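Long-time lurker, first post. I've been practising inverse folding by hand and with some scripts of my own, and I keep getting stuck on stretches where the structure tokens seem ambiguous. Below is the full token string for one chain I'm working on. Before anyone asks, I'm not after the true native sequence, just a reasonable design that respects the backbone. If someone could post their per-position residues I'd love to compare against what I wrote down in my notebook.
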């Protein structure tokens, strides 16, 4: 595995953690009644799914 791939993987994991934190904050805002754009939750969930898919496909290529 090249150094570039390791950096990309660590950046993807970091971004995934940031998105999960953002989703948690959005849910807190929703239940406390402060969230105006509830569509942000759906958008964030889709971003997480896309990132997980990209990560797993790259991980799969390394194992093949």
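-- Answer (accepted) --
I ran through it position by position. Result:
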């Amino acid at each position: 595995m090249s150094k570039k791939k390791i950096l990309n993987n660590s950046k993807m994991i970091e971004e995934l953690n940031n998105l999960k934190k953002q989703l948690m904050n959005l849910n807190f805002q929703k239940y406390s009644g402060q969230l105006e754009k509830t569509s942000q939750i759906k958008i964030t969930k889709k971003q997480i799914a896309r990132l997980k898919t990209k990560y797993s496909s790259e991980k799969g290529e390394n194992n093949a």
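A couple of notes from the structure itself: The mean pLDDT is 88. The first helix runs from residue 3 to 32. Happy to go over any region you disagree with.
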